[in-house]
Each structure stands twice: as structure tokens, then as C-alpha cells.
Amino acid sequence: MEDSADRIAQPWGTRVPYGRHETWPARVDTFLADGVDPGAVQRWVQSASILHSDGDAMDVAVADGRMVGVRGRDVDRVNRGRLGPKDLFGWQANASRDRLTRPLVRRDGRLVETDWDTAMDLVASRSRELLDERGPGSIGFYTSGQLFLEEYYTLTVLARAGIGTNHLDGNTRLCTSTAAEALKETFGCDGQPGSYDDFDHADVIALFGHNIAETQPVQWMRLLDRLGGADPPRLLCVDPRPTRVAQHAAVHLAPRGGTNVALLNALLHETIRHERIDRDFIAAHTVGFEELADRVADCTPKWAADICDVPAARIEEAAELVGTTDALVSTALQGVYQSHQATAAAVQINNLHLIRGMLGRPGAGLLQMNGQPTAQNTRECGANGDLPGFRNWQNDTHVADLARVWNVEPETIPHYAPPTHAMQMYRYAEQGSIRMLWISGTNPAVSLPELPRIRSILTQDRLFTVVQDLFLTETAQLADVVLPAATWGEKTGALTNADRTVHLSDKAVEPPGEARPDLDIFLDYARRMDFRDKDGGPLVTWDDPESAFEAWKRCSAGRPCDYTGLSYAKLRDTSGIQWPCDESAPQGTARLYTDGISWAHPDLCESYGKDLETGASQEVVEYRSLNPDGKAVLKAAAYRPPHEEPDEEYPFQLTTGRTIYHFHTRTKTGRAPQLRDAAPDVWVEISTADADRLGLGEGDLADVTSRRGSLRGRLRVTGIRPGLLFVPFHYGYWDTENGSGPGPDTPGRAANEATITDWDPASKQPLFKTATAALTLVERGGGRPSPAPTTTASAPATAGVARPTAGGSAAHTAQTPTEFPHGREEGAQ
């Protein structure tokens, strides 16, 4: 069937109910540009989405050399033809008039157009100067979660074996590094155990800090279709906001920010106390159960209720829900990953599955979700700093094996210390040891925490900054060299989603002007730098996407993420295959760990683990003593209070997040008219209890201020938990008069003006959900609604607030501010 719903007003479209253990029926979603008749489409080109981590398969419509629309691929296992709003409308940004079409270089303080040779010669000459004067540690690379596998792998080779730097990370550090770390802590290796297909078989689905309705909208369609069918699943939602998931949940818990470990320890306590555990599975496949049981022995629901500010009875209901089902699927995302004790909390979700034996069979699976479309590729290829193919940087045999693949000496590959994570890279740049930073496909001047600090780092004269992107982003405006990149639909490459499904995205149209694919830019740099292997031959031996993919296959051979059974021809023929895919599994692998824990052995594992409180890497001797046979590790964690808690001056907790209509810093979605108009400007969510207590109303203009900075937005009064403010993180400055950031007399707009420089000790993921803030009234709304959507978790608590169809900046001339009373009603919920 096809869907004819207004996909802005009805983001999840129409329902096709189906029952448990049945196959999800197909529904083909299509959008063509105004005036384009289906018969006018000359070609449909295979692809998959790059605007979230679902991996929704689609075909791109081409007419007269232009993209004119998209449609879902009904044969694909991931989405069965469905597309979310960003999929349907986001492609229009490719044809924006403000695309970068020529390289830019900074001359006399201004960015001016130049040719590719001039720009790349400048980048290469600066690289050589720094290598000669300061060594490889003076150069860092910060990449994306939106490039293709072939591009990440090439970047990794030239950075790790060409330059020889340990400073390579992706903005996946902001969204998915905790997922990777939690999987390594528990299973010894990265790799998603479960599959989206587990949603078809689950009896209970627990979503921890995961607003799946807006972050993976097509999988929410899948859950909605199951909820409408026979034997529907029961949902557990852990989220401080009244999300669509919460509205459909059998149990909804809205804990105080930063208390996830306390809540999860109480769930583990109840599960063990009631003997809702699989002792045979625990004995056969895990180590550490006695320590875990001892750690949570006193973590009663009442204990957790006092910490989390949720009723103990509701915690008991949640424990019964997850503890008595025969088929449990759990998912986690930023409500866990970007909050206090991130890795410790994510590991406790793993522990819950292990002690229940809920692993490796249909309907019993873990999905430590990703936030970006190709975050999994960043991790596999080593562009997040880890070694490619999930090799262990502490294992000399693994390093030697990688050196063999690259034909370099092992000492060429930096492995003397843990890979440098993004937040540390910016610290090194701040201190002056990193003197060149190459940023590709990401916008840290909006997306990193504490933006005043980030802008001060990027504007240092001594830091040479290269930005490779589609538009003149807030970050690109601060660069010394700007390289115009091609994007999705304008180049070919593979991309892997959150449940290990590999898709091929074929080139549909030519990029605008002189813009080049990221792969071509990296290959050009490698040639200009003349990187060589140990025999004097070229270090990078491939010259196009397919040959790069074949090179990656050789690197992945025999590793957990084995791609050797895949090829471009096979991916074009079958539309989406889950790795590992090799001779023993030529059609791919739906679930990992169906026959035990396969990659946790000390000789095979990607990591020996870390101390969850300090982040210190454990040594092989310690790991081998704990886990000589390579089982899953049940790693306990004690609750610790957040580093910053509300006080008289900053009485609110501040959290950030997404809306379904936008992606990251809106560089693409803000240029698609339907998406732009659905959520045109920043807003601030406040609870009804706090709004009533403070005399605030819908649409009031307010400043949110922390110890780091402030932003201004109109209030949306919702059912969010009292004491908490929510601000979407998508909004920067490129579409304002300021362009690159707030001025002395212009208020901030980006959520990260106010967030804190803090990160999880194990995963090094920034903690965007742990700041505290104060609220100051600027002017009354006067009946003007907030620009927040009414169709999502941002829906107003008061009926009659219309969703705006267009809008602009929420910044207005400030009136005399009114300071609100400090504090909040204790125990309000």
C-alpha cells in the first residue's frame, strides 16, 4: 500500500497493523517535487537515508540530471518501504543555492574563492611544515557520522599510518561512543547484538532514554503497527518528557536527570530478588554475577525512588514488566549516553539482558542505538580513533595484523596510549599542542558543549583549521581553508545502520560546481603528501569507491565486522545485508551471540575494559584473570551523584535533544521548506507545574542561563517533569543575521551556549544532559505561540496552541528582565 498522509502533520503516516511473529507488511512512501509527474522520472537510483541511524532504504528519483524525489524500497528488511519526514523532504537541501561550489582560503581575515590546487597545496604544505617542526601529534582529524564507509577507512589509513597521529575522532563521540563502549565492556567487542526484526517478536520493549518516535521514526512506525495488531507488545518508557513512546507505554518512568544508574540498579535488584533470572545462562556465558548481585543487594525500589524522584511502586511495576516476559528487547540512546554515568548505565541494561538470558534469539535482543546514519562505519573503520576492524590497540598481535594489511611497520601505527577522544583533541588545540585540525562533515561550532569556549579555540591564530562541508556552516566561517564536498546522492558509497545492515548508496546526480566527494578529497591529500608503505609503494592503493570497499573487506576479514561476503553487485541485488557476512554466513547475520559470546576471549577482544568510574584502561593480565574463557562480563556500578546539581542560583536541570523534523545543526533539514517550517526556531520546554508556580505562559520569551553562557527562546509548556528545562540542540546561527554566532548585543540561540564541558570517564562522550540553569523572563508572549511542533514530545500541555507553519528568529528586543524565584516544589511529579 501507499501512504497519502500529510507527513508533517502526521509524521508516522497511516497504520498497517500486524501480529506478533508476523512479517511487517510493506507500505511505500513517496514524495516528488511539485509539478513532477511520476511518468517524468527517468531513473530511480538505489540509496539509503543519511538523516538518522535507521538506515531506511530508498530510491532517488532523477529527471533531467536533477533529484526530483524519493520513494521507499519495499523489499528492504529495515523499513519495508517506509520513510520518515526527514527522508521524504531532506533531499531538497542538495539543490540549495548556498551550496559551496569552490574552495575557499582565508586572505587578510576573509574567506575568498580559489582553485583546488591552491587550496590543497596549502593544506599539504602546512601538514608537512608541522610534521617537520612538531611531529604527527600536532595534527588532528575530527570527522562525522554522515560520510561513507570508504571515506572513513581512507581517512583512517592516511591519519594513522600516513601522518602517524593518535588524534583522530568523529562526532560520533557525541552520539554513539557510549554504545560502543558499553558493548565492549560487556561483550569484549563492539557490534550490535540484536536486530530490528526483534521488534516483530518481542513481548516487552523497554526504551531507556530513547525517544524512538523522533530519532528512529520508521522503527516507531513498526512499533505502532505492532501495537495495532494481535498480541501487541507492552512498552516500558524511561524518559523525563511526555514522548509518544510514553503515551503508549504500559509503564512510564520520568526520573530526575543523572540518576539512571540508581534506577537500573533497582531493576536489577528486583529481578534478582524475585529469582527472575536464568541461572544456567549466567553460569554458561557470564562472569561477575556474584559481584553484581552484591552491589545491587541494597538498591531497593524505595532507595531508588528517593534518588530518582519516581514512585517506588512504579519502579516495581517496571521490574515486573521486564522480569517476567519471555521476549524482551531493550533499546537505549541519548537519555542514557549523554547523561551522568553514561557507560555505567548502558552496561546495566546489558546486565539485565544477560541475567535474564535474553540474547541471541528472536524477540530477545539489545539495541544500543546509534544517533547518526553511518556512526557504525566510523567505529568499524577506526575513524573514531579505535583500530579498524575492532582490533585492540593494547594487543600487539592485533596491531601487527593491521600493519600487515597496510604493509607498514607496527610502530608506524600509534598505539602507545588510548586514542585521543574529541574533547581532549579540542583541549590540546586550546593548549597549543595541536596546530592543525581537519574537520569533515560536522559543525562543532554548534554541536559541541560550551560554545563560547569552542569558538575561542577555533579562532586562535596558531590553529590552522580545514573544514570540509556542503555549506558555509558556523564552523566553516571560522576556518582557514574550506573544501566544498559532495553529499549523499552525488557520490557512491556503503553505509551501515544501527542494526549492522549494510546498504549501498549509488550516485544519482553530479555535485554542484567544483564540489568533490569526500573520498576524492582524501585521496588527493594522500597523493600530495606522498604517503608510502614500508616497501616504498603508495600507502593508499585504491582510487574509487568500489576499490576502497574491496580494500576495507581485506581489513575486515576474520574480524567481528567481516564484510568479505559482500560486494557492490550483491548490495545492489539484495538491498541491505547485516554483517558479519562471509563464507559461513553469505546472506548475513541477523543476531550475534546465538551460540555464546564469541569475541570476548583475551586473545580476540577489542578491549580489556575500563574502570567505569575513572575510565582507566585495564591491562590484559587483569582481564585474563577475570575472564580467561571469554564470557560476557557482568560489570557492576554504584550510583554516584551528578557533578552539577541545581542550587539557589541555577535551580533547573537542563537537557537537550532532537525533534523529528531536524537533524543535528540543520545544515540540511533547515534548507528543506517543509522541515524548516515545521520547527522554524528554538524553543524552551518547561513543566506545567513550574510555569504555574512562576507565572509563565506559552510563548513567553525567556533566557536560559548557565555558568557557561545563555540562549533565548520562547517557552512551550508541556508535561515534562518539574525542575527540568528542555532545549532542542539543532539551532545555530547560519540562518540569522549574525551567521557564525551571537554578538555582544545579540542573544544566543544554540542550546550548547549553556551546556557543560564534562564527559563520561569510560566512553568520553560529552554529557549534554547534566547542566543546571536559571530562567529569566524577557517579554510576555502576548498570545504568540512557541515555534515548537505540536505533533511530537513537544506537544503543549494546554489545548488550543496551534503549530506554526512558518517562522523566524525568536530573538526580540529585550524588555526589563524579571528574575524568577529560585527552587521548585519538592516531589512534584
UniProtKB/TrEMBL annotation:
Residues 779-829 are annotated as: Disordered. Keywords: 4Fe-4S, Iron, Iron-sulfur, Metal-binding. CDD domains: MopB_Nitrate-R-NapA-like. Residues 42-98 form the 4Fe-4S Mo/W bis-MGD-type domain. Gene3D superfamilies: 2.40.40.20, 3.40.50.740, Dimethylsulfoxide Reductase, domain 2. PROSITE patterns: 4FE4S_MOW_BIS_MGD, MOLYBDOPTERIN_PROK_2. The keyword Manganese does not apply. Pfam families: Molybdopterin (PF00384), Molydop_binding (PF01568). The keyword Iron-sulfur applies. Residues 789-800 have a biased composition (Low complexity). This is Nitrate reductase. The lineage of its organism: Bacteria, Bacillati, Actinomycetota, Actinomycetes, Kitasatosporales.
